[in-house]
Write a structure and sequence with these properties.
Mean pLDDT: 75
Shape: extended
Number of helices: 2
Domain Ubiquitin-like protease family profile: 6-54
Keywords: Hydrolase, Protease
Radius of gyration: 16 Å
Number of strands: 0
Protein name: Ubiquitin-like protease family profile domain-containing protein
Largest sheet: none
Strand content: under 5%
GO molecular function: cysteine-type peptidase activity
Structural class: mainly alpha
Distance between the termini: 48 Å
Helix content: 25-40%
Family: Belongs to the peptidase C48 family.
Order of helices and strands: HH
Length: 92
Amino acid sequence: MVDVLFEQNLPQQLSESLDCGLYMVTHAEYLSYGHEVLLNEFDPNALRTRYAALLWDYETRKQEANAHCDIEAPLRLAKQSRITSVTKVFDV
């Protein structure tokens, strides 16, 4: 049997928003590193920029390696990340 814990005061998307992917991916990343998702540190715009930069970097590395599919793409070691309220975000 599995114990289920219900957390209160977690960041939630606005009710009219259909963008649940950002919240799902961020929660999964935080949980996989053993971090607590903090409401005051959850900045959807910064996270969107971060994930866009990660995807751009991954595609760039694929092109540099002349990879034709994701299986051939060079991987990086996983790094712990933590987006906080003091993280600087730059428009690209």
